[in-house]
Write a structure and sequence with these properties.
This protein is mainly alpha-helical and 174 residues long. It is built from 6 helices and no strands. The complex comprises the extracytoplasmic solute receptor protein and the two transmembrane proteins.
Length: 174
């Protein structure tokens, strides 16, 4: 059931994107916890003269996947870095206009990154690039990164819808 807040903030589509972005960020958190676990095992193993081959490789791939997984959530929740000192005295309408502009930039960069990262995935796969120690295909990390970027574009689209309404003098933030 759609709540009044969901209707005011962009409808069922944006509510679904918000929920998906939250779940995807939790996935990113789990990946990051696994990276921490790998590093803990590596450090503890080093103390006892044992090694964990490929810990750097898994850390690189895991942190990249996790960082991209957080981007859509930051967009839909308004948790991106902002310079509030410039907007502290601005009206809600002007803040919405700046947020709209930021969402437009996020959308454009998301589309550009999807385009280039997709070609990167194709290249990584075609040339069969793997990590040096574990021989994990590097293109594996590109798949969740591309999913994150697609979700970022959807999140930016929701922000554009919501803030565009406020910037034009429509519904205020709820």
């Amino acid at each position: 059931m759609q709540t009044t807040q969901d209707k005011a903030r962009g409808g069922a589509f944006c509510a679904a994107v918000r929920k998906l972005a939250t779940l995807w960020a939790l996935f990113g958190g789990v990946v990051l916890l696994l990276v921490v676990g790998i590093n803990m095992v590596s450090v503890i193993g080093t103390l006892f003269g044992m090694s964990f081959p490929g810990d750097f490789e898994l850390t690189e791939m895991g942190v990249a996947v996790a960082a991209f997984a957080f981007l859509p959530f930051c967009q839909v929740s308004g948790a991106n870095v902002t310079a509030d000192i410039f907007t502290a005295g601005a009206s809600p309408r002007w803040v919405a206009r700046f947020t709209f502009l930021g969402a437009l930039v996020a959308f454009v960069f998301g589309v550009i990154l999807i385009w280039r990262m997709f070609h990167g995935l194709i290249d990584q796969r075609a040339y069969d690039y793997t990590t040096a120690i574990l021989a994990v295909p590097i293109w594996y990390a590109f798949v969740p990164v591309l999913a994150s970027l697609a979700l970022l574009c959807l999140a930016a689209l929701c922000t554009l819808i919501e803030e565009g309404r406020v910037a034009r003098g429509g519904d205020a933030h709820v």
